[in-house]
TrEMBL record:
Keyword match Transmembrane: yes
Domain of life: Bacteria
Annotated protein name in UniProt: ABC transporter permease
Assigned keywords, A-Z: Membrane, Transmembrane, Transmembrane helix
Regions crossing the membrane: 20-39, 51-76, 97-121, 141-159, 166-186, 216-236
Organism, as annotated: Paenibacillus filicis
Length: 242
């Protein structure tokens, strides 16, 4: 059942321009970060790590959460048209399958974006002559960033299924980014999936997480993902959608 609904979600993305948006924003964030790095090379002298601070700041702190919100709003767009949620709820598919399929599609899309961004980062560093000594933390930054993105996707999917407007959930995501940044600065970064993204990707601090911190990071992501997914499934069963 889940495989069928997942395939159906992929079919809805055919001939859409979502892929263009997913590619443009990482490229834009990388160009902005590289420009800052080149301009401030007198101060930014830590090679690959300095470049990461610049490119991941734009990408992980702002563009990626917005991309996640756009993906979630897009996968719910068709159901919001002409009250198609009513037709979906009468179909022989479970609400859990619908929610998990949409979250699965968003997760795969964001995984592709993460891989694209890491590839762009490596290519930019090599072009700028930073050598071949990539940060050993890079795979962890990318993986933890994706895990936090899935948790954010669970939140945004709940919002997008309940709100008919395409723009409103994206606007909420922007507000949540600043709230998450505030929690991170206040040393409360584990309390929001948006600040978990900052923490996991090493956006503001490139220090590796220790065993306890990494365990807490994984646990909170699991709780956010499972909790908001369960709330979304419950809302769909009750017909509590836009």
């Amino acid at each position: 059942m889940w495989q069928q609904t997942f395939s159906a979600e992929w079919l809805k993305l055919r001939r859409s321009r979502l892929g263009l948006v997913l590619a443009v924003l990482p490229v834009l964030s990388l160009l902005m970060g590289c420009a800052n790095f080149v301009i401030n090379q007198a101060v930014l002298q830590n090679g690959w790590y300095s470049l990461w601070t610049q490119v991941s700041l734009f990408y992980g702190e702002f563009f990626l959460p917005v991309l996640i919100a756009i993906c979630c709003a897009y996968v719910c767009r068709l159901e919001h048209m002409n009250h198609n949620w009513n037709a979906l709820l009468t179909a022989p598919v479970s609400p859990a399958s619908v929610v998990l399929s949409k979250l699965g599609v968003v997760s795969v899309l964001i995984a592709g974006v993460q891989l694209l961004f890491v590839g762009l980062y490596v290519g930019a560093g090599l072009t700028l002559g930073l050598g071949n000594s990539l940060p050993p933390e890079l795979p962890g930054w990318a993986l933890r960033g994706w895990l936090a993105s899935v948790a954010i996707g669970a939140v945004q999917l709940m919002l997008s299924m309940r709100i008919r407007s395409f723009a409103a959930p994206v606007g909420i995501a922007l507000c949540a980014v600043f709230l998450g940044l505030g929690l991170y600065v206040a040393k409360l970064g584990y309390l929001s999936p948006y600040s978990l993204l900052t923490l996991g990707m090493g956006v503001l601090s490139q220090e590796s997480l220790n065993v306890v911190e990494n365990g807490a990071f994984m646990l909170m992501n699991m709780l956010f993902t499972a909790g908001f997914t369960a709330l979304t499934v419950r809302g769909l069963r009750r017909g509590d959608v836009g």
